Amino acid sequence: MTNLLVHSQAPGPDRVTVRVTPESAGWKYVGFEVRKLAAGEVTSGTTDQTEICLVLLGGKGRIEAAGRDFGLLGERKNPFEGLPWSVYVPPNEAWSIRAETDLEVAVCSSPAQGKYPARLIKPDEVGEVPRGKGNNQRYIRNILPDTAQAETLLVVEVITPGGHWSSYPPHKHDTDDYPNETYLEETYYHRLKRGSDFALQRVYTKDKTLDEAMAVSDGDVVMVPKGYHPVGAPVGFDLFYLNVMAGPHRVWKFSMDPDQAHLPY
Q1: Per-residue pLDDT tens for 9-46?
Q2: Rounded to whole angstroms, how far apart are CA atoms 65 and 230?
Q3: Are 112 and 50 in contact (CB under 8 A)?
Q4: In the Cβ-directed half-sphere of 56, how many Cα atoms lie within 13 Å?
Q5: Average of pLDDT values for 197-201?
Q6: Residue ranges of domains in the chain
Q7: What integer pLDDT is reported at residue 2 of this predicted model?
Q8: Would you state the pLDDT for residue 262?
Q9: I need a labelling partner for 117 at 20 to 30 A (CA). Which of 16, 89, 133, 205 fits?
Q10: What pLDDT does 144 receive?
Q11: Residue 251: CA count within 13 A, CB half-sphere
């Protein structure tokens, strides 16, 4: 089994189903985990030396963070049924979530110093825009784009219809060559609308020192430390993924695989 693929598990006592840390990934910036709660359960944490973005993937919950009560949040039952509510939390702060219904939340993190206050990110701030054409079209939801206030963290959701390609044409962001390209570590948290079958993701470099093709199941995470990383959704299986990126420059600058660079992005 490739070490870039992290399978989800049943929730443990901490309610975590999948987790990636800088230590487990062997990199410096991105941390990611998903927690699933039953109605009435509470989960909590501290940000320490990171900024985090709490993304409600499905269900309703009351979020408190950095001494603020953000109230009861959440509208969609799952990532395919609407736009997300999210909360940004700066370093050295406590946070907690009490589930009003069964709830799934992503905890996205990266290093920060504490330049920005905690804030609510509403669905109407996120929106949804198409990208690509034909069987290359997918739908982008920018939660923390590089135009939003954060120190190192970037967060985006993508819906890819069944039979379509995504993160395509293949691109990479593994070279610290700003403004031409930025070094950004990345995780993909995959969900399949039907909850079964698989999607495909390849992570590769042109010199083939890294070349992994993975069948991902509902709830799996793929880590992208470097290289190109396209995704394919089989016909009949709509795909959602949540991307978390972070690096020394909080700007998304990438390079195309020259073999597909002539195709519309």
Answers
A1: 999 999 999 999 999 999 999 999 999 999 999 999 99
A2: 35
A3: yes
A4: 33
A5: 95
A6: 5-256
A7: 56
A8: 87
A9: 16
A10: 98
A11: 10
Owner of token pair 């039907």: 194
| Calpha distance 195→51 (Å, rounded) | 31
Q: Residue 169: its pLDDT value, please?
A: 95
Token digits for 20?
């990636």
Q: CA-CA distance, 21 to 94, in Å (whole number)?
A: 19
- The arithmetic mean of pLDDT across residues 49-58, rounded, is 98
Radius of gyration of the chain (CA): 17
Apex CA 250: angle with CA 247 and CA 254, to 5°? 80
- What is the spatial distance between Cα 111 and Cα 108, in angstroms, rounded to a whole number? 11
Q: Are 216 and 190 in contact (CB under 8 A)?
A: yes
Q: Is the pTM of this model over 0.70?
A: yes
pLDDT at 1 over 70: no
Q: Tokens 């430390």 correspond to what residue?
A: 225
Q: Which amino acid is at 192?
A: L
CATH level 3 topology of 5-256: Jelly Rolls (2.60.120)
